[in-house]
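Handoff note, outgoing to incoming analyst
You'll be picking up this chain. Sequence as last confirmed:
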Amino acid sequence: MDTAQGGKAYGQLKSQQEDRLNSINEAFLSDPQYAEEEDLSSKLEMFKNQYMEFDLNDKGDIDIMGLKRMLEKLGQAKTHLELKKMMSEVTGETSKDSFSYSDFLNMMLGKRNAILKLILMFESFGKEQESKEVGPPRRKTFSDLP
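Most recent structure output, in case you need it:
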C-alpha cells in the first residue's frame, strides 16, 4: 500500500471528522440552554481538539480504550472498573461502551460533576498556569509543603 495514500486518506478522515464536530459545535452555539455560557465558542474549539485527539477508532465515538489512553496521557491511569464508571457518567447509561461528541459536550458544559470533566478541567487549568510562568522556577517556601 502506498504510504502517501494512507496519509492522505487519514487526513481526509480527520477533516470529515472535524467538519462533523464543527456542525455539532454550531448546534451548541445556537442552543438557548448554553446562551449564558461564558466564552462558549473558544470552549467548544478546545473541547473539539481534545475530543479529536482521543477519538482513536475514527468512528466519531471515544471508546473505552480511547478513554484509557486519554487518561494515561494526562497521568491519570485508571482501572477498567473506574473507566466503566466514567463512561456511564458521561453517557448517563451503564451499558454503553463509547461516548459521542454530543455526550462529551453535555458533560463538559453541564452542571453534573463527572470525574472525567474534573480531570480535563484541571489539566487545562494546569496548562494555563504553566504558560504564565516564565523564567527560573520560583523559590519554594514552607507554605508550599503539603
